[in-house]
Structure formats: C-alpha cells, structure tokens
Design brief:
The complex is a heterodimer. Chain A is α+β, with helices and mostly antiparallel strands. Helix content of chain A is 24%, strand content 26%. In chain A, a hairpin with a 5-residue loop joins strand 48 and strand 49. In chain A, 51% of the residues are buried. Chain B is an alpha+beta fold. Chain B is built from two helices and six strands, in the order βββαβββα. In chain B, the strands form two sheets. Chain B has a four-stranded antiparallel beta sheet, covered by helices on one side. A two-stranded antiparallel sheet of chain B has the order 1-2. In chain B, strand 4 and strand 5 form a beta hairpin. The chains are: A alpha+beta, B alpha+beta. Chains A and B meet through helix 20 and helix 24 of A and strand 2 and helix 1 of B.
C-alpha cells in the first residue's frame, strides 16, 4: 500500500514506541489491503498509511477521524469481521482482519446520508420526538426509512454464541487505574502486606508516562519493573472497573487483549477490602465550528500517535494550548517534523474561532481573525475528572472554577474507598506518586482492619484467637484510626468549554451547543432534562468527553454556573459491556433420575420440569394411559419432593402447615394434605406418611420441593423455635416410582419381601417399609394419583434403575410398561385430582380449590387459617369444578374462557381427551353461582367459537367413588 | 453487593441469601381482624434508616437470620438470631 515500511506517515523509531517493526500484519480496510506493525491499533495502522476518515457521524453523517486515539475515541468505532462497534483506536490490528467502517452508505468516501447535515435545521434536538409522530399510521414507513440511518455495525446471525466464564476475586486492595499513581499505590499496598489487583484500561501500564519524555519513560520503566517483581500484585491490563457497589463489590471487565483466544470478555466479580481510585484525567474537547473535522485532535491523541505508534499526525499544525501537556504536544510535533504554524496560548488569550474543511480539515480561524491553512489542529483545552467510581461510592464531586474541572469530595467517601493521582490533584510526578504511595499504604492498613473485622464476625472466633493469628500489628490500638492523607495541590487552569461559534458537544450523538441551548429554551432547563431531550452524553462514550461541556452550555443557557447546575450523573457500567459477559456461563443444574439411562434407551421424549428432565411420553401417551387402566404401568416420579421429618413435635408441625388434621395419624398410615400460605392461597399438596413414633416422610409437589423445605424451616426457626423437629431433604436420596393398574398387586407380590400386600394387611392410604427386588429399606405408599390400585415406591437412589428394570422384566407377562408425565396428567384429570399451579393460581384460596372436605377450621391454628375462615363466611372467590363439554369430541384449550354473555365467569384449567371415556374431560374454575352440578355453561374457544359444557357432580370423571383404588 | 453478617457463617455475599424482608409479628389468628391480618401480610414501614430484616441463608447454613440494614447506605450489622423476641423487635423498629 505504501512506499515506506509501515505506512507513509510512519516516523523513525521513537523511544517509547510500542510497535514491533520486525513483525508486519496484513489486514483489510473497506476491502483494500493494508499493512501495520504488531502493536499497532487499527486506527494507528490506518493513520500511519495516511488514512484520515474512519467513520461517519450518527445524525449528519459527517466524516470523522482520530480525536483521542484512545478507547474513548468516538471517530474510530469500526466493524471487525462479524464484530460490530469495535473501538478501533484501542483494538490491536490482527492478521487477516476485515475491518470496515460503520454507518456509511454506500461508502465511507461517498456517504449519501451526509445530505443530512444540510437538513440540520430540521434535525434539531428532539426532532425524532416531534417529526415522526403524525400521522400515526405512517410509522411503519418512517421506521423502514429510519432503519437505514441507524448508527452501529452489523451483527451476523451466523456468529457462534460465545461462552464466557466469570471469575471471582478477593483482593485486599483493588487499584483502578495503572498509571504512575496506580502503580505506586499498588506497590505501597503490596509492600504493606496486601494482596493487590491492579486494573488498567489500556493495553499497557503507565498512563501518561507512556507518551512522555525520556524522564517519564525512565520513571515508567522503573515502576513497571517494581510492579513486575512484586508477587502480591496481580496486573490486569485491557481491563476496566465497570462499577463499585455496596460493600466494595467491584465489577471488573477483562477484554480480549487480556484474555486472548476466542473469549471476548470476562467479568471479574471482586470483593475488595479497599478500593484505590486512580484513573487519572480524560482530556476534554473544545466546542467551536468544525471541531469534529478529521484533523482536529486532542493533544493526547497526537502525543499517543507520535510516541506510541511513531505516526506523524499531520504536516502543518495549529495548536491551542491551555496547559503544560499542550506545550509538550508542541514539542512532540516539532520533533516529529510537523510544521507548527501557530500556537494559540489560551493562558494568554489565544483561541480557536472555527475550523473549516470538507472531508478533512483545511483551515483554522484563530483569535485575531486570521485564517491559517493547515491539516492538523491540536486542542489542549483541559481535563475531565472521571469521578464515576467516587460518585458510585456516594461522594459527589464539586466543580472548581479555578481548576476548570470537578474535584472529588474526599471527606464524603466511605473509609474503604481512597482516591489518588490526577483525579485527586496536580503536582510533579514525585508529588503524585508520593501521594499514591501514602494512599496505597493506607489502603492496605484499612484492608487489614476490615479483614480483621470480618474474621471477628466469624462464629466461634474470639478476640484472643484473632490476635494470635493476625500477628503483632493487631494489638496496635491506633489501628482503628484512619490516617488523613495530605491533599494534593490543584493547579489553576483556564475555563475553556465553549468557544465563539457553534460546534459539537457530543460527538457520538451529534449534539451541538445550539441543540442544548434549544432544549433549555424549550423548558428542559437542567443538565439531566437537557440530556434526555437531546441525548447528549447518552452515546457510546457515556459522557466521558462531553459531560462537562454539556453542563457548561446548559449552565450558560440557564444563566447559572456549572458549580450550581452540576453535571449529569455517572452511572455504571463505566464502559459498554457485552450481555454475554454479564450473563456468564449457565450455572443452572440439570437433574436426572437414576432411571434416566432406561428412559433414553426407550425413546422417552424429554420434558423440562423445573431443574428436572423427565420423560413426557414414550411415543403414545394415550396408549400408556390405557395400559394403566387395563394392565399395569410404571412412572418415574423421582422429582417429587421428599422431606424426612423426625422429632416429638412433627405432628404439631404438620397440623400447622397443612389445612387438615394430623394429630391422629397412626404409625403405618399416610394422608393426603394441602398447604395454604398465610394469605389462604393454595401453596402445595402431597402425601405424608408416619413411619415410626417420631418419624414421618413428607412428599411435596416436584416444583415445590425447595420452597416447601424453606417454608417448613421458616416456621420451625422463626415462629416455633421451641419445637423439636429435624428436617432432612431426601428428594434425591430416593428414586421414586409409581406402579399403577389392576395387575399391580400381582406384580408387586413377585418382587416384594417382608410386606403382606393383601388389601386387609396393607389397605389403601397405608405405608410399609420392606425389601423390593432384593433392595432393603424401600418405602411403599399405597396411594392413587391415577385412580388405580397403586403403590408409590421410594427406593434408595442407587438401586432405582435396578428396581425399575426388575419390575418391567418380571411384569412383562402382565403387560407392565412405562408411562410418562403426559399419561399421568390424562389419568389424574380423568380422576379429578387437581395440580397446584395448573388448576390453582396465585389467587386461589383453599375453598376455591374444592377443599371444603380437607380444611378443618376447628383447628386452633394453621397457616392461612384467618383468611380461610373469612372465605368460608363470605363464600367469595371462584370454585373448582369438573366440566364435560356437550360435544365430547371437542377438547377446549386450557385457559379457554367461560362466558356469561360478555362477562368472563371462569376458565378451563385442565383439559384432555380421555382414552378411558372416549370423550373430553376438563377441570375449570368458575364463579360460585355456576358451580352447582348440572349447570350449563358457555365456553369460548380460542377461535371465538362458543360451546356448551356441563358442570359434573364430582371433579372425578372416572370412578368417582374410588373403588378401583381400594381393591 | 451487600455483605451480610451471618451469625453462623460470618460475612457473606447477599446473593447467597433469600431476602424475606421486614417481618412484623404474626397476630393471634383467633382474634385478628381482617385489617390486622392483612397489615401483617402486606404492609411494611419501609422506613429510611436502620431496619431489621429477615434473610434466609439459602446457599449457606440455611438458617433464617435477622440483619439490621440501613436503607439509605446499605450498611449492615448483626441482629440477634431469629427468635420471636427479635421478630417483635423488628416490628417495633
């Protein structure tokens, strides 16, 4: 591409350069081949080749180039392959990368949408709130057109999902910022014994020393060597602190440069005992006409280009300097062979009035009115203090007119947050690192104190034990006192925010000073309101370059000062973060029963039920249901929640949590019970059996297993702490299966030892413990969710598969076959057994669930009793009923409405085609006036069709007397 | 993220806990009026300052604990272990 190695604008070797001239890297830019050096960013490689325009702006499609040459450069956001919105002045160039410009159509050079800038008078602040409002029907048309103009890159649907890990860190001290102050603070903290996590946003430690003079580079080399030699410091480069939360919980984002490989980003959740905030300062643009033209750069941008990447930023320069860093940029430019035509010194009244040019900068008008032809305008107008982390810690910084920036409210910080470096004040390098060392040592001391308080809070720890463990310093009574750090001086600086002409305040969102003034004129007369109306500070930079200039414009328009009006609020995250990094890997456990290998081998169609994967069916659920009615079936019910309850007060506990009575449950019997919450709403149901004098086994619904354990513990721990009950969750300790159907007893007799299975010896609703298929200590419950003769077996989990396979094997001649969840749902619906959460919802109180027979209001107390007493008195709420469509071939979809005229009077809660009856069967919640058996109701199907259905005498459609279960 | 002082496990991340919130004392179900009972169910003072809240250390010791939390600053400090007495104290705060 270029005549000169590394590009036409590449300079001879610079002392601080980070490029490796021995390794060239080929990549493409908008389809054309380019070559950079290893260590180049995308922007530096392109700038070295003489490219100046890298993107088009959001609204007016104005050409944009390098402004800051850092991560926060709004002009250098590009697409790399499938990855949109890459920060091109931060991302290293990589071999073969296809880099393209975003937001351009048809091309970067000829962007037709640039006509927008001539339409600027109608694209003023808030235009999208006003312009596209009417007529409303035209919105889809507006939307289709607007979509072409949307800023941002392209996401490919073929991009493979990234799997991002998370990391947890527990440093004593976390230092945010790896410039000289951050490094010095980290060293001092580590030397005081603290473990330190040093987080630097850029690819290298060093901050502004990296683009400094020989003395700066020597100081950097010295600090870097010390940091590298300190084993207690872990350095994360290309990583950034996203936010500081309660208890110094700090979110750190590690980016590609730090991770390498395929992982794009990783979230580090750090619990730091103390946080040292040392991000330095961010250079601020200056507002004047043409301030966004390619060729207008901040002083730090030209210093980075020259010193880090050996790139000559232009040929003929004008400089506006308000500070020593601007003066240093002038020296750098001269050394790089750039012709410096004029230095406007803002400290002496110098100013830039306007810049002009079309695709790039052509000329500048300065304070005395003269127009200077040039291709580079360097702005050193001042600094923004990125106080983000301090605001998040509760300290609101105050504006200092003398320093022309916000200064932190150090007294307002909690003790676990310290601030140092350029954010805290100015001074020589020695002064800054001296302050940082003191802050680092103090951070380590406070961390030690906090760590000791945490250890003291551990149960069983005693002060003397902690003392002997912690060493001599723990006995120092002065330890609790916080050292007061000396204040750094704050230098005076001219206030340079907005010049004499109208220019861009927010480069990402294309908001000008005029837009902000218009917003104030329309009544949005505070920084926060004007921000929302104009979207200033709401773009990718989130205020880092533009917030103070925006505040200055708004304050001026209102007729107040920045000190009074303040800026917009800094909120986390500090930089954009991918949703994948926040989501991290899925930690959701997946549960399988011990019988899962059999299910898989036999074609089970899986059903996700909470954390469990269960067999929905094995091919034909209706046939599975018929097999249960006619022969014998087996279902895996392992997910049923099981709590082992022991102690003298279990019966009292059961009486408290269930609505029915438990005091007279004999050993060897089981009982069905329903629980209500304190608001009377049905919470859970299940069977509990009494295995011994003080020993019970409670079952819960599968989905309620965790919540009911917590519910029971809550009563025992907080309301009835004097009761003696020990609760052990045994859900996964047992494999559970239900054997059901007329041949069940014949099958069970073949495999059971030590239990008389005859109806007299082991009747319905009883429990026995015995040996099944050679496995001891199996629990047998004779219950009947399906309505058939059935035993629910709870088998030690490791023998579950063995018992399951044995039952199917020895029952083959009886027709024993597995059935899945769907067949069970059919069978229980035929039988009229409701399912909590299916036939009840979050408003269904006990009497609405047809539980009149179970609720014992004569008990002294139980959960939810008062609400149920009142429901019983006023008969309020719907009723659960059985429903039979007049046309039995119609299965009304679940949630079909029950209508009385235009009034919704209920809904179908469950519906299936019954293989046993050959017609549809339903459960429904209806208003009480419709609950009488024989009532004819109208059901509206989802299609809108109305059908007639009859309320049945019982919930059960099959065997309402229960004879089949009791044989 | 708030660090909660669990009396059984020491200071732990709030993400390990279930937040039960302020738990007013349970009225006598035999004599409670609907207004009293529903205040117990639904009404919380939610005041600014130190409040006593119940947390369940779901991913730890599985104990219900009382923690005092300053609702303005999210500072926390240990309250006494769960008991009817602490529960009554919570209602009074």
């Amino acid at each position: 591409m270029s005549e000169q190695p590394g590009g036409a604008m590449r300079l001879p070797q610079q002392p601080g350069e980070v490029i490796d001239r021995t390794t060239t890297i080929d990549f493409s830019w908008n389809g054309r081949p380019f070559t950079g050096f290893a260590g180049d960013t995308i922007a530096s490689a392109l700038a070295a080749a003489g490219e100046r325009v890298f993107s088009r702006s959001l609204k007016y499609h104005r050409p944009r180039g390098v402004l800051t040459a850092s991560y926060h450069d709004p002009g250098c956001i590009v697409q790399v392959g499938d990855e949109p919105n890459v920060r091109g002045a931060h991302r290293m160039v990589s071999a073969g990368a296809a880099v393209t410009s975003q937001n351009t159509w048809p091309s970067l050079r000829l962007d037709l949408k640039a006509v927008n800038q001539y339409a600027a008078p109608v694209l003023t602040a808030g235009f999208y709130y006003k312009t596209f409002m009417r007529p409303r029907f035209a919105w889809p048309l507006y939307e289709a057109v607007l979509r072409r103009f949307v800023n941002g890159g392209r996401v490919s649907p073929d991009t493979p999902p990234s799997r991002q890990a998370k990391r947890y860190a527990h440093p004593d001290v976390l230092v945010a910022g790896g410039g000289p102050a951050g490094m010095a603070a980290a060293l001092a903290a580590a030397r005081a014994g603290a473990s330190v996590l040093l987080v630097e946003e850029e690819l290298h430690l060093g901050g502004h020393l990296r683009w400094g003079d020989e003395a700066d580079l020597a100081a950097l080399a010295n600090l870097a060597a010390q940091v590298a030699a300190e084993p207690r410091i872990e350095v994360l480069t290309d990583a950034v602190v996203l936010g500081r939360y309660d208890g110094n919980w700090i979110a750190v984002l590690e980016r590609r440069g730090a991770l390498g490989g395929a992982e794009a980003e990783r979230l580090v959740k750090a619990r730091a005992k103390t946080l040292v905030v040392a991000p330095g300062l961010i250079e601020r643009p200056y507002v004047f006409a043409g301030n966004d033209l390619p060729g207008v750069m901040l002083s730090t941008a030209v210093r980075r280009l020259i010193n880090l990447y050996a790139v000559k930023p232009g040929e003929r320069a004008v400089v506006l300097s308000a500070n020593p860093e601007g003066d240093a940029a002038v020296a750098d430019l001269k050394r790089a062979g750039v012709q410096v035509l004029r230095v406007e010194d803002a400290r002496l009244g110098g100013d830039i009035v306007a810049a002009a040019g079309r695709a790039c900068l052509r000329s500048v008008t300065v304070a005395d009115g003269s127009q200077i032809s040039c291709d580079l305008l360097v702005i050193a107008a001042g600094w923004t203090a990125p106080t983000s982390l301090l605001n998040m810690a509760g300290a609101v910084p105050a504006y200092s007119p003398r320093a022309a920036r916000f200064v932190p409210d150090i007294a307002g910080l909690p003790p676990e947050v310290l601030v140092t470096g350029g954010l805290a004040g100015d001074g020589s390098l020695d002064e800054l690192t001296g302050h940082a060392s003191a802050a680092g040592a103090e951070a380590a001391r406070r961390a030690k104190h906090i760590g000791r308080a945490w250890r003291r809070a551990m149960p069983g720890s005693r002060a003397d034990a902690v003392r002997s463990e912690g060493g001599a310093d723990t006995t120092d009574p002065s330890d609790d006192a916080q050292a007061v750090l000396p204040d750094l001086p704050v230098d005076s600086h001219p206030e340079l925010f907005v010049g004499r002409t109208n220019g861009f305040v927010d480069f990402s969102e294309d908001v000008t000073a005029k837009d902000l003034r218009a917003a104030v004129a329309e009544g949005f007369d505070s920084a926060e309101l004007a921000k929302r109306f104009t979207t200033a500070t709401m773009g990718p930079l989130q205020g880092k370059l533009e917030s103070v200039n925006a505040a200055a414009v708004v304050a001026d328009a209102i007729g107040t000062s920045i000190a009074e009006s303040g800026t917009t609020t800094w909120r986390p995250p500090y930089v954009p973060v991918s949703l994948g990094a926040l989501a991290g890997p899925a930690f959701e456990p997946v549960r399988y029963s011990p019988m899962q290998p059999w299910h898989e081998a036999h074609g089970a169609v899986p059903l996700q039920a909470g954390a469990w994967i269960r067999p929905d069916h094995y091919g034909d659920p209706a046939a599975e249901a018929r097999n249960v009615r006619e022969r014998v079936g087996l279902i895996d019910v392992t997910p049923i929640g099981k709590l082992d309850l022991r102690g003298p007060d279990v019966a009292r506990l059961l009486n408290l949590v269930y609505v029915n009575k438990w005091s007279k449950l004999e050993i060897g019997r089981v009982r069905y019970g329903v629980m209500c919450a304190e608001d009377g709403v049905v919470l859970d149901d299940g069977v509990t059996g009494r295995l011994g004098e003080d020993h019970y086994l409670m079952s819960t619904t599968s989905s309620g297993a965790g919540a009911i354990w917590e519910w029971v513990e809550n009563w025992l721990q907080t309301e009835r702490p004097d009761w003696v009950v020990h609760v052990t969750p045994v859900t996964t300790a047992y494999a559970s299966m239900n054997v059901a159907g007329p041949h069940t007893r014949t099958l069970m007799e073949r495999v059971t030892e030590g239990v008389d299975l005859s109806n007299d010896a082991f009747p319905y609703m009883h429990v026995r413990t015995g040996r099944i298929a050679g496995v001891d200590e199996c629990v047998l419950w004779r219950i009947g969710f399906t309505g058939e003769l059935s035993y629910e077996l709870h088998v030690p989990a490791s023998y579950g598969l063995h018992v399951w396979e044995t039952l199917l094997d020895v029952g083959a001649d009886l027709g024993a076959a597995a059935f899945g969840v769907e067949a069970q749902r059919i069978l229980r619906l035929e039988k009229g057994h409701f399912i909590v959460g299916q036939d009840t919802d979050g408003l269904t109180r006990g009497f609405s669930a047809a539980l009149d027979w179970a609720i014992k209001l004569d008990k002294d107390d139980f959960a939810g009793k008062p609400e149920l007493v009142w429901q019983h008195e006023d008969s309020s709420g719907p009723r659960l009923v059985g429903l039979q469509p007049a046309d039995g071939s119609v299965v009304p979809a679940e949630a079909s409405l029950i209508m009385v005229g235009d009034h919704i009077a209920g809904r179908v809660t469950s519906s299936r085609m019954s293989p046993t009856l050959g017609r549809s069967v339903c459960l429904a919640q209806v208003e009480a006036r419709l609950a009488e058996p024989g009532t004819e109701v109208t059901v509206r199907l989802p299609t809108g069709r109305l059908i007639t259905a009859l309320v049945t005498p019982h919930l059960a459609h099959v065997d309402p007397d229960g004879g089949r279960m009791r044989v | 993220m708030i660090l909660l002082p669990c009396p059984w496990c020491g200071p732990r991340d709030a993400s390990e806990f279930g937040h039960i919130g302020e738990t007013p004392p349970r009225p006598d179900p035999a004599t409670a009026t609907p207004a009293q009972w529903r205040a117990y169910l639904y009404l919380r003072p939610n005041s600014r300052g130190w409040v006593v809240e119940t947390w369940y250390h779901r991913m730890g010791c599985r104990r219900f604990i009382k923690v005092e939390r300053h609702t303005d600053t999210n500072q926390t400090r240990q309250a006494s272990p769960s008991s009817p007495a602490a529960r009554a104290g919570a209602g009074a705060s």
